[in-house]
Design goal:
The protein is an alpha/beta fold and 163 residues long. Helices cover 45% and strands 19% of the residues. It has 6 helices and 5 strands; from the N terminus they run βαβαβαβαβαα. Bound molecules: coenzyme A (COA).
Length: 163
Amino acid sequence: MSKTVICPGSFDPVTLGHLDIIKRAAKMFDHVIVAVLVNSAKSPCFSTEERMRFLEEVTGDIENVEISSFDGLLAEYCKQRGADAIVKGLRAVSDFEYEFQMAITNKKINPELETIFLMANADSMYLSSSMVREVAAMGGDITNFVPDCIRDEIVERMLTLRK
Ligand code: COA
């Protein structure tokens, strides 16, 4: 039976850590839907369209990955898309409590839905989108944090926002 999973997130912007989780999920499941949260309390630096375009660019060579966006409850979106599970990366123990809470809430809303955690790789343990934005805004090198093809655009935007 074909298995579909959803990798949700803000992706503001996508990092090498996110990409690692997406690639590994794509090897394990038939169809991976990367879902960008539209209305986040976080007020993103990059628009939904920009975040989706970055994701399209960095996953363009992975056949079974689809980029989408959603608004509202993740558990409802999973139901709507016929997803079997949510896949998320776990970076550190500090991620666990919040992720645990989200997984239980999602299961209460949609009892059929599983949440699968993949351990972040050692290089991504410390990574986050806000750290990437901060380093770029201060003129630091983000080569080790984001895919090459989107690096310059992120740097340019963050430097402009700083002015
Ligand atoms: N590599 C690098 N960074 C990672 C990462 C990885 N593998 N996994 C997570 N991160 C970072 C992100 O970059 C982000 O960093 P930032 O805070 O510096 O921007 C941080 O971890 C949090 O990730 P983010 O994607 O912003 O949000 P989240 O994990 O808290 O959850 C949703 C996002 C979309 C899953 C969640 O908000 C959601 O489900 N929203 C819909 C509403 C809903 O259904 N609510 C009820 C369920 S609780």
